[in-house]
Amino acid sequence: MTALFLRDLKLSIRAGGGALIGVLFFLTIVAVIPFGVGPDLKLLSRIGPAIVWIGALLAALLGLDRLFQAERDDGSLDLMLMQETPLVLTVLVKCLAHWTATSLPLVIASPLLGLFMNMDETAIGATMLTLLVGSPAITFIGAVGAAVAVALPRGGLLVSILVLPLTIPVLIFGVSATTYAAVEDPAPFLPPFLILIALTLFFAVIGPAAAALALRNTAD
């Protein structure tokens, strides 16, 4: 499992620019918002957490279609289906490697982008914390879409269409937690934050299982 994690981590970084492309796309989305909204610093600080979360969500969708594509191209997907190690565990490790290579850099870059949106220290910290615990759920959800579309020649758009509606609850509670911490009393931060953790744990169980099932059906 360690060898698989390191292998997928290297593939995720190399394929299509890896983490750098995601961070640049994240930076582009957040950087252009002040030009569209205008020089209203209060408005920017109020909508800042939501914009950072939306940018991170869209950036995280970029490489999801390549989650199982390398195994499909070189034929190792068939070996994954026949190995003794449970396929669910293999998919889980691949999801963790993909998140480490693509979404973790977005979490690290979020404080800098928060400054672009005139967010204070509390809002930046809350945004980074919610992205850290909520972004894995996006990867686990995306694994299902990637498994469904792995046999299609151009499944990238289909993966985004399948995944985006399912990530809305994660986006809602992530933005709710950061908004409460940034704009209102910090006390209401905990309930949506705990729900966000629960969503990640839920999809950590459901996502790899559903993706493994989809991969087996695709192979059949």
UniProtKB/TrEMBL annotation:
Subcellular location: Cell inner membrane
GO process annotations (BP): cytochrome c biosynthetic process; cytochrome complex assembly
A GO term from the CC aspect: plasma membrane
KW Membrane (keyword) present: yes
Superkingdom, natural source: Bacteria
Main location: membrane
Swiss-Prot/TrEMBL keywords: Cell inner membrane, Cell membrane, Cytochrome c-type biogenesis, Membrane, Transmembrane, Transmembrane helix, Transport
Pfam family, one: CcmB
Alphabetized GO MF terms: heme transmembrane transporter activity
Membrane topology annotation: Multi-pass membrane protein
Transmembrane segments: 12-37, 43-64, 85-108, 128-150, 157-183, 189-215
Task performed by this protein: Required for the export of heme to the periplasm for the biogenesis of c-type cytochromes.
NCBIfam families per record: ccmB (TIGR01190)
Similarity annotation: Belongs to the CcmB/CycW/HelB family.
Protein name: Heme exporter protein B
Native organism: Rhizobium leguminosarum
This protein's encoding gene: ccmB
